[in-house]
Design goal:
Layout (H helix, E strand, L loop, with lengths): L1 H21 L7 H55 L10 H48 L9 H34 L1 H6 L3 H27 L1 H26 L4 H42 L21 E9 L5 E10 L4 E5 L6 H7 L8 E6 L2 E2 L5 H6 L1 E4 L10 H6 L7 H10 L3 H5 L18 H15 L3 E5 L7 H15 L3 E5 L11 E6 L2 E6 L1 H5 L5 H11 L1
Parallel strand pairs: 3-8, 3-9, 6-7, 7-8
Antiparallel strand pairs: 1-2, 1-4, 4-5, 9-10
Helix pairs in contact: 1-2, 1-3, 1-8, 2-3, 2-8, 3-4, 3-8, 4-6, 4-8, 7-8, 12-14, 14-15
């Protein structure tokens, strides 16, 4: 960029010399001198553009490399921060808004970084070199450049407004991305209920708002160029008028005036570019703030300074007088005490909203208890490293999470080092081997986004196979067989029972038929344990909550 700026400034010297030499053509030996001088000037006229072109090419490649590497690093930092942050952070804002920061904001930053590195440095260097050359040729005439200083105040005012507009644009893009994600995810419901027109109207308003916000930002950006254009015209006029006087009065040569005029013409677009660069900076500043909101967010749930590594748990899980409330103040658990001894199967039952899923989320420290404690093998889980704590657990939820990858790789998430043979054994134990081998490419079949190419029961069996492959001492099962047909459910229940030998199972169940063999059942109601016992004892409890649920499900 320094060489490019110097090459640009060199044009002033060439123009000055050419004009002065042309002014001497009336002399007898002028033609001979001109021919001699041309031997020097012509190579410069060819060489300067060549050097400038090569430097410009190299500068663009290098600046874009820097910009892309910078935003790539930002994306990696954002992703790492988002995944390592508290589970609760994902409920604070829609996923679509977070996604827009990875895509839209990062694109803005990429352009801003490239512009600030290339245009700012290159154009600033060019301005410095050209002004130095202008002053060398005619310092008095070069003072006309001070007129550009008049643009300073209005540009600052415009910048403040532009930053706010840029922030509004990026914020709305996040909302729009979230709306689109919701609409496409719920396309089944939309079509079934005939809501296409409603969705078109709802998203149409969002698109229209985006247009309005963009036009507002573009209007503010567009004010900079006319200001600099008008001031540039004033500078050229001042140089031209003063130049005539200087040449006629003999104060300076025509070449020096021509050099200053070429300098002004060279600087004018550079200064406009620097003025417009302020717009890029304001947009980038807004996006950068949103990006660093993600990167700088620190989790509240972290390892204690003296946290211990849990090598292999026996699976003794205890909740001792646990209280918990969500960030919005909703109380989820009150005075909950639960014990699951090694090898036991305990069940959590009750109506929706009773606190069952909250308990399962607290055990791997997706949330931390407000009061009381949860311990594994007698050690408070807050004194165990989270990595080693979660390594002791496998979870299967009624909301199955699958990736747009092969069947084998989706099962392998349970153990990334597992062989294909291990994966096949886990699939067989989960009653999944039969349907997997009938898929077009067997275990190498790509199952689509969120496993859309599979039925609900098939997706759940793959999730169970993943948990089996993990071979963890503690199993967290959140209605793990809810999407299975009767025949598959029997097979999976048998597989889970076999897997559960010597391991602790904590099962959330809505269908009481799945927990009849549980060693102990905890009945929750409004965040409290209201009954405890086996299926047999609780079924006989007159006017009991469990007996009522059993009556509704089995006898009704």
């Amino acid at each position: 960029m320094t060489i490019l700026a110097a090459a640009t400034a060199a044009y002033l010297w060439v123009v000055s010399e050419l004009v002065d030499q042309w002014g001497n053509l009336g002399d007898d030996d002028a033609l001979e001198e001109a021919e001699s001088y041309a031997r020097v000037i012509l190579p410069l006229l060819i060489g300067i553009p060549l050097i400038a072109g090569v430097c410009n090419y190299a500068q663009q490649i290098l600046c874009n490399t820097i910009a892309l590497n910078a935003v790539g690093k930002m994306q990696k930092q954002m992703f790492a921060s988002a995944h390592r942050n508290d589970f609760a952070s994902f409920s604070r804002e829609p996923t679509g808004k977070l996604m827009s920061k990875f895509i839209s904001d990062v694109s803005v930053i990429s352009g801003a970084i490239n512009g600030l590195i290339s245009n700012l440095v290159r154009d600033t260097l060019t301005v410095i070199f050209v002004i130095a050359s202008m002053i060398w040729h005619n310092w008095a005439l070069s003072l006309a450049m001070l007129i550009f200083g008049l643009a300073f105040y209005p540009i600052i005012v415009i910048s403040k407004k532009l930053r706010g507009s840029a922030h509004d644009v990026q914020e709305h893009l996040g909302v729009m991305t979230s709306d689109l994600k919701e609409s496409f995810t719920g396309v089944r419901m939309v079509k079934t209920y005939g809501l296409e027109d409603h969705e078109e109207e709802r998203l149409g308003k969002s698109f229209d708002k985006r247009i309005r916000l963009y036009l507002k930002m573009i209007t503010e950006k567009a004010r900079v160029d006319p200001i600099l254009e008008v001031l540039g015209g004033l500078v050229i006029a001042a140089v031209a008028i003063a130049g005539v006087y200087i040449v006629k009065s003999g104060i300076g040569s025509a070449g020096s005036v021509a050099a200053v005029l070429v300098g002004v013409l060279t600087l004018s677009p550079r200064l406009r570019s620097l003025g417009a660069l302020n717009n890029v900076f304001q947009e980038g500043h807004s996006s950068l703030a949103r990006i660093f909101d993600v990167i700088d967010e620190t989790p509240d749930i972290v390892d204690a300074p003296n946290a211990k590594v849990l090598e292999h748990s026996k699976g003794h899980v205890t909740l001792n007088d646990v209280w918990f409330a969500y960030e919005d103040g909703t109380e989820a658990l009150s005075e909950v005490s639960i014990e699951a001894k090694p090898g036991e199967m305990i069940a959590l039952v009750g109506e929706s909203g009773g606190g069952k899923s909250t308990i399962v989320n607290l055990i791997p420290r997706l949330y931390d208890v407000r009061e009381g404690s949860i311990s594994i093998d007698g050690v408070d889980i807050r004194n165990i490293t989270m990595e080693s704590l979660r390594r002791q657990m496998a979870m299967v939820s009624q909301d199955v999470t699958l990736f747009n990858d092969t069947v084998a790789n989706n099962i392998r998430f349970g153990n990334l080092d597992a062989s294909l043979e291990d994966i096949q054994k886990a699939a067989d134990a989960a009653a999944a081997y039969g349907f997997i081998k009938d898929l077009p490419n067997g275990f190498e079949t790509v199952i689509g986004e969120d496993g859309d190419n599979l039925s609900g029961g098939q997706k759940q069996r793959i999730a169970i196979a993943r948990a089996i492959l993990r071979d963890a001492p503690i199993l967290l099962l959140d209605e793990a067989t809810s999407a299975l047909d009767a025949e598959s459910e029997v097979k999976v229940q048998e597989a889970v029972e076999a897997l559960g030998k010597g391991r602790t199972q904590i099962v959330i169940a809505h269908r009481l038929s799945t927990v009849q063999k549980a060693d102990r059942i905890y009945v929750l109601e409004k965040g409290r344990v209201v009954e405890t016992g086996t299926h047999a004892t609780l079924s006989k409890k007159e006017n009991g909550v469990y007996a009522r649920l059993k009556s509704l499900q089995m006898d009704g």
